[in-house]
Amino acid sequence: MKFKIKKDKMLPHQLKWWNLTNFYPLLIGGYGCGKTYIGGLRSLYLSYINAPIPGMYVSPSYTLSQKTIVITLKEIMDRSEIDYTYNQQRNEFRVHNWDGVIWIGSGDKPDSLRGPNLAWAGIDEPFIQKKDVFDQMIARVRHPDADKREVFLTGTPEELNWGYQLATRTDMDMGIVIGSTLDNTHLPQEYKDNLLTAYSDEQIQAYVHGQFVNLTQGRVYKEFSRELVTSLKTDGWEIGAGIDFNVDALTAIVFAHSKTHLHVFDEIRLRNAGTYDLAKELKEKYPGIKVYPDATGSARKTSAASTDHEILIQAGFKLMSGKSNPPVRDRVNCVNRVLRKNMVTVENCPNLIMDLERNVWRNGDIDKRDPDQTHASDAFGYACHWLFPLVSRKVGYSKW
């Protein structure tokens, strides 16, 4: 089978990146600018010219890979009537038309990436991955019979980590192209408008235009001010509670909400207590309400007969929780957005107010060195993200 790439169908920044001849081609872009699609297409191309030597595409996690590169590769090959099989247990694509091999790797455990020689490697979202991932890939792309060896990278600049340092180095064979979400003509205008509305000016520079901006410095919840601390009539609004599971301190943030506003009016904070204690106190004051807990509460502990989630359900609460928590950055962005849009008010909640005023970034994450901080804002964030989620990071595809 002859493998033909239709370059005339690529977006301008995709084509410019595709034509780079560097050993390390790096595509930096906003959400939905077509990074995953062009990375998938590049993976297929490299598997074709290097067959049967394998290559590896590394996602931040296997869970994320199923939602991004795996589905993208399947869509491209299905549309092009390419004969392939995907072994999910082995995380391996076999392209039968040219005996190509594409392995899907997970960056959350860099040591798991060790193994046989590769012809090529792709790293997805290097700005949220560990440097060990990059080190492992450059050590493995060494097969002597490969026709084209390269390590390509595609990502949105969410953190100024090693990926940023790599992009600014001049002593490596690095080629860089920057693409904007707004340049993807295949995306609905509504999606673009939602992005511009959802984020602050500095977030737009990073998440839309692909520019390097330090989003992890200073206060975490920059949009909070004391002007939002007030009483509010909420007659007829639904009552709910966000929950953060900690032995010290176990926290519930209680609120009333409409379709466009959330008013926090109570907080429960228990020290040296368990979920049974929280469920009892919450049930006495607000029986049968919906609760928005930390998703890790669904995990069974060897020391307990029931999970945290099961205890809440047994107490009569309606659980609103996914299988996993949203990324911390998404949760923080969501809270800042509703604060910025004046969709939140707070009263009688000193711990939440303290968190929103005092939480700061440290080494790219929320500083948790003070044991009294972050519990209230985490509980609040779980509820905010469920009720008022950020726009989807759905990838836009260009045909080829």
Description:
The protein is of the alpha/beta class and 400 residues long. It folds into two domains: 7-207, Rossmann fold (3-Layer(aba) Sandwich); 226-387, 2-Layer Sandwich (Nucleotidyltransferase, domain 5). It is built from 13 helices and 16 strands. It has helices spanning 12-18, 35-50, 62-67, 69-79, 131-140, 162-167, 189-198, 201-207, 275-285, 308-314, 328-340, 350-358, 375-387, and strands spanning 24-29, 55-59, 84-87, 92-95, 100-106, 120-124, 150-155, 174-179, 238-244, 248-257, 262-271, 290-293, 318-319, 344-346, 361-362, 365-366. The strands form three sheets. It has an eight-stranded mixed sheet with strand order 3-4-5-2-6-7-1-8, sandwiched between helices. The chain has a six-stranded mixed sheet with strand order 13-12-9-10-11-14, with helices on both faces. A two-stranded antiparallel ribbon has the order 15-16. Helix 5 (131-140) links the parallel strand 6 and strand 7. The longest helix is centred in the N-terminal third of the chain and has 16 residues, at 35-50. The radius of gyration is 24 Å and the shape is elongated. The model is unreliable at 392-400 (pLDDT under 50).
Topology:
Elements: H1 12-18, E1 24-29, H2 35-50, E2 55-59, H3 62-67, H4 69-79, E3 84-87, E4 92-95, E5 100-106, E6 120-124, H5 131-140, E7 150-155, H6 162-167, E8 174-179, H7 189-198, H8 201-207, E9 238-244, E10 248-257, E11 262-271, H9 275-285, E12 290-293, H10 308-314, E13 318-319, H11 328-340, E14 344-346, H12 350-358, E15 361-362, E16 365-366, H13 375-387
Parallel strand pairs: 1-7, 1-8, 2-5, 2-6, 6-7, 9-12, 11-14, 12-13
Antiparallel strand pairs: 3-4, 4-5, 9-10, 10-11, 15-16
Helix pairs in contact: 2-4, 11-13, 12-13
